[in-house]
Amino acid sequence: MGLQGITDSGTIIYKGKSSYEVVQKILDNIDSGIVVCATDSGEVLFENRIAARVPEIHRTIMDCIHNALESGDVQGRIGTPMERYNTESGLWFEVKFTQLVWISGINAIAASAADITQKKKNQQKIEYQAHNDFLTGLYNRMKCEVDLRKAIKDSVQNGNKGAVLFIDLDDFKHINDGLGHQYGDILLQQIAAGIAGIPGLRGHCYRMGGDEFVIIVEPELFGDLDKVINNITLLFNKQWYLMETEYFCTMSMGIAFFPDNSVDVHEITRMADVAMYAAKRSGKNRYVYYSSEVESATAQRLDIENSMRQAVSTGIDEFVVFYQPVVNADTQQCTSCEALVRWDSKALGFMGPGEFIPLAEYLGLITSIGDYVLEEACRRCKLWNDNGHPDFYVNVNLSVVQLLQKDVVENIKKILEKTGVNPKNVVLEITESFAINDMHRVMEIITGLKKLGPRIALDDFGTGYSSLNYIKQLPLDIIKVDKTFIDDIVEDDYAQAFVKLIVDLSKTIGTKIVVEGVEHKEQYDLLKRLGVDYIQGYYFGKPVPAKVFEENNLEGRLGE
Ligand code: C2E
Ligand code: CA
Ligand code: CA
Q1: Does the predicted model carry a pTM greater than 0.90?
Q2: C-beta 543 within 6 A of ligand 1
Q3: 3-state secondary structure of 181
Q4: How close is the Cα of 134 to the center of ligand 2, in Å?
Q5: How far apart are the C-alpha atoms of 500 and 469, rounded to whole Å?
Q6: What is the per-residue pLDDT across 90-113, written as a single tens digit (0 to 9) for each?
Q7: How many CB atoms lie within 10 A of CB 193?
Q8: Which of 321, 342, 516, 527 to mutate to test the pocket of ligand 1 (most atoms within 8 A of CB)?
Q9: Which of 128, 380, 464, 505 could cysteine-pair with 432, CB 3.0–4.6 Å?
Q10: Which residues share a beta bridge with 480?
Q11: Closest CA to 196 of 207, 205, 188
Q12: Crossing angle, helix 292-313 and helix 353-363, to 10 degrees?
């Protein structure tokens, strides 16, 4: 006779001794240990061979059975596998319970234990890979979430505080692009090791991706937060060695507190990130604590960002070009103008370029805006040229970001052709910050642009770092002296000497000098005496819409 059957509740009922022997044989030959115990007394009624011979299996099963019997909740553990680790052997077992009526008719528990060590190891490996950053060996974003959730929960329960520090390296892209990715990777590894080596931080540092790191300052370390911040600052004040050369790589850091700022993992991380961006915006290489002011400044920026993307994608017509007169210093005649963009945003109101050009450059939208300004200005100039002012010319600003586009020369050529303007009547203004890029490239671009016909002006001269020797090498037509030299020129001998020097230099290298920001008659008189060629400033006119510009400066001379 064999097994009689298994009842609906999963209880196995045996009938007769011969079946016991058969079952024993079968059970002795399987890999798992099996023990049957009486439910009342805990007496061992049966053990298969592996359970009897392998002490750790025996002990693991017996511990589980005794625990269950003591707790009085055997029923609750039926059908729920339990994972148990045996410290002496280093093995993992999965223990399962079944209830049955033993041969003698008494109620019993049958417990089996299978070795799942290999499965566990595989799991741990997967978990390690899932929780660690392969490049730096730090934990990753996923683990950060898990740990932060726990840290916040603990802090709420115990009434203490912790902090999230969000670090982003400054200008890491330059190192990556300049030296190559493999050196960028080495730098990330060095930085990761440096952060993890700060007292108290090992095991609490995470690489979130790219050049972003997060540190969780757990409540136990929170009292030392200032020390931790100081140590991080010191770490980034020293140089790193790459290709046997010293490199500085600074960072911007945002700090948010839990539970004070938020008890939500994503929210608190976002807040630290927002504070980090505020640190970047205010000049990098610093840290900023999260606050509601930081939040609203960011929200405003996001507003501008979204509106700008929209304005650019829906035809750019929110951007308007104003024109400011540039006059001949001797005759006071308006011979040209500078095209200056404004943004008349439906959502945010009227904005000057200072408020949105840097962001447009950052977002890569400046090329679209700049192309639009150039096209508008060229059209307008052609109109004026065709209507009685054949020599009138227009000055248009080009951003560094625009100039560094691969196809900048080709692109500008297209715009000039499309508008039909005489290229001789266009001046392209480049800034000193572009001119101090790689000389070879700068030369190539300037030469390419000049071949199309326009003249080139160096804008904001005197605010950057370029030496006069450097300027001499560039094929410039015009130098525009920055307003900062003009503000106090009447009283400031140095400013006067500077302008005089530039005037003399321009004569020897054949460029014209424009002075910007002239607001008073005294300034004008002085500059005229110094031999400046052209003047631009509120004294002769502010930037105004095209129609107003015509009325003020070309009135009666326009053939309309
Ligand atoms: P910028 O090229 O140096 O332009 C001259 C700026 O000085 C203009 O400011 C002009 O309004 C201002 N200005 C001229 N004369 C006076 C004066 O007598 N007193 C005072 N207080 N200011 C004077 P705006 O229009 O605000 O433009 C600021 C900057 O924005 C420009 O400086 C230029 O760098 C940038 N920008 C303007 N339009 C464009 C554009 O279409 N493309 C690019 N890339 N940048 C532009
Ligand atoms: Ca300019
Ligand atoms: Ca300027």
Answers
A1: no
A2: yes
A3: helix
A4: 48
A5: 16
A6: 999 999 999 999 888 899 999 999
A7: 13
A8: 516
A9: 464
A10: 514
A11: 205
A12: 80
